């Protein structure tokens, strides 16, 4: 299944930093070295200690889906329930981040890649701090979601596909963006004139036409409980 095109990866060359500190050029598949003059500073307090003091296992819950699919609504429902039981959490929401960290980026394919790269790095730092991070971004390209996954420790990354049909997203259109895009008012709008690549192997798929946000949020929390190390 594809939206607005039939591409197997982002249609341009970009680089991603792998877990080992290397740069991978997805246009050539060549591995490039990270800058040689920059050395990672060792820290005395380890990530395990930060998690232990919070009495939780860090996770990065990555919600992906079309605009209007329900990502922000479900992210808020997840955080509300986790917060109520004492978990330390934070939501990285696509719209909010574009008002600050990523306000210099537009919506070209290149800028979308950089948008996700920055957010993935921030999510990794937050997980290192011991938090449960909930990321709610369209993140349309599989290669960039894989980049985010590869930054995290094993089993820390949970990809959640918010599976809402395009026509339902257009019907909802909470921000009026589909109406603008369909009439030529917005270029590079995912699902209309820019590709969305659905996950192939997401840990969780939530079909918003079959259940409400509260029930769907509990499915995510149940998954976390079942997969958190004892």
From TrEMBL:
GO molecular function annotations of the record: adenylylsulfate kinase activity; ATP binding
Active site per the UniProt annotation: 139
EC number: 2.7.1.25
Family indicated by similarity: Belongs to the APS kinase family.
Protein name: Adenylyl-sulfate kinase
Gene3D superfamilies: P-loop containing nucleotide triphosphate hydrolases
Alphabetized UniProt keyword annotations: ATP-binding, Kinase, Nucleotide-binding, Phosphoprotein, Transferase
Entry function: Catalyzes the synthesis of activated sulfate.
Domain of life: Bacteria
Binding positions (ATP): 65-72
């Amino acid at each position: 299944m594809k939206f607005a095109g039939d591409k197997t990866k982002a249609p341009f060359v970009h680089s991603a930093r792998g877990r080992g500190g290397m740069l991978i050029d997805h246009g050539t598949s060549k591995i490039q070295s990270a800058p040689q003059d920059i050395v990672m500073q060792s820290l005395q307090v380890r990530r395990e200690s930060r998690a232990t003091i919070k009495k939780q296992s860090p996770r990065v819950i990555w919600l992906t889906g079309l605009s209007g699919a329900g990502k922000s609504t479900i992210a808020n429902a997840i955080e509300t329930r986790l917060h109520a039981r004492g978990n330390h959490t934070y939501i990285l929401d696509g719209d909010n981040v574009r008002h600050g960290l990523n306000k210099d980026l537009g919506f070209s394919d290149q800028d979308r890649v950089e948008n996700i790269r920055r957010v993935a790095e921030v999510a990794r730092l937050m997980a290192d701090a011991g938090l449960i991070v909930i990321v709610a971004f369209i993140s349309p390209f599989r290669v960039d979601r894989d980049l985010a996954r590869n930054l995290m420790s094993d089993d820390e990354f949970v990809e959640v596909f918010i599976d809402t049909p395009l026509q339902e997203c257009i019907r909802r259109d909470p921000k009026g963006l589909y109406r603008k895009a369909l009439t030529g008012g917005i270029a590079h709008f995912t699902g209309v004139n820019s590709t969305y690549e659905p996950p192939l192997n997401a840990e969780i798929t939530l079909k918003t036409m079959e259940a409400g946000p509260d029930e769907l949020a509990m499915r995510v929390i149940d998954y976390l409980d079942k997969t958190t190390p004892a």
